[in-house]
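Postdoc handover notes: sequence design on the structure in folder B. Input tokens:
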């Protein structure tokens, strides 16, 4: 008796295409969720960084009875080609458990020039995670490890110059250079060689931005010096955006507004994270009204605003 032929049925081309289409749809649905989860993790790490920096400012104030200056600069460094010297982020290194790096900088001197590769090269390649936002484009691709994505807040740059009468810090590293231009900066961090105290922040520390995110939009040869956490750049029109940011410029704006100044920006969708002067961290929408954004940047403007 002949053995009956067993017909084996496989996928038809149409069925195979349907399965592939279904898999494609599932991937399309899941991929954004995966990307959002990754960004949420990166944003959380950035938040932790800012929290650490905010607490470091408080610990620094406990030690020196003032906050660090935005930058320290010698009096003769206003000449073309000079440097902006050492930034605030270098002075709080002991407060973020990086005292060994601080000791190296102190040993070389805080006035070393920005392009002195003999002294600076090792520091250019010193990676400090607390200064790096993982969402920034160059967080893991920069050829120089010593980048930072955080800037001190100098508030809203105003026109005109008047005398500045704030209380100064007692640390002898930082002395007011006598410039009336300090009056143009109304945030908790001012121009070079001058410090502020808690008493100067009369708007309240919980209402005042201290440190915010900023990533370098520019790709010129000189602009690469805008990224470093510890040392200055040539005395150029971009110099202030190397160490500070302004709440008088819209968030996530690539434009610098007045020459030499820049706003805060990030790669987090929809806004920027800030450390307040009380040590708390908050996310501020890029759609925040200009008057509110300006108000949270001033230390003593007397504004009554809410981000809720």
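Designed sequence:
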């Amino acid at each position: 008796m002949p053995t009956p032929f067993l017909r084996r049925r496989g996928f038809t081309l149409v069925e195979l295409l349907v399965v592939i289409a279904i898999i494609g749809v599932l991937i399309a649905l899941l991929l954004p969720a995966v990307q959002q989860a990754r960004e949420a993790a990166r944003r959380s790490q950035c938040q932790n960084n800012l929290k650490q920096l905010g607490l470091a400012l408080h610990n620094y104030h406990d030690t020196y009875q003032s906050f660090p200056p935005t930058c320290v600069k010698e009096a003769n460094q206003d000449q073309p080609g000079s440097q902006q010297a050492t930034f605030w982020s270098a002075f709080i290194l002991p407060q973020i458990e990086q005292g060994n790096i601080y000791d190296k900088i102190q040993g070389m001197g805080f006035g070393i020039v920005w392009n002195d590769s003999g002294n600076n090269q090792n520091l250019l390649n010193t990676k400090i995670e607390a200064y790096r936002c993982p969402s920034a484009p160059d967080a893991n691709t920069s050829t120089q490890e010593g980048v930072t994505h955080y800037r001190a807040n100098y508030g809203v740059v105003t026109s005109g110059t008047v005398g500045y009468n704030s209380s100064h810090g007692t640390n002898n590293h930082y002395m007011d250079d006598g410039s009336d231009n300090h009056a143009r900066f109304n945030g908790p961090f001012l121009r070079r060689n001058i410090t502020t105290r808690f008493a100067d922040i009369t708007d309240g520390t919980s209402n005042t931005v201290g440190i915010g995110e900023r990533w370098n939009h520019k790709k010129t040869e000189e602009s690469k010096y805008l990224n470093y956490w510890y040392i200055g750049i040539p005395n150029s029109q971009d110099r202030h955006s190397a160490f500070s940011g302004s709440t008088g410029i819209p968030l996530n704006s690539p434009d610098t507004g007045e020459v030499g100044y820049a706003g805060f920006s990030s790669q987090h969708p929809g806004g920027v994270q800030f450390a307040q002067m009380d040590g708390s961290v908050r996310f501020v929408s890029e759609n925040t009204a200009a008057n509110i954004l300006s108000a949270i940047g001033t230390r003593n403007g007397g504004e009554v605003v809410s981000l809720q």
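Context for whoever picks this up: Residues 13-64 form the longest helix (52 residues). Don't rerun without checking with the PI first.
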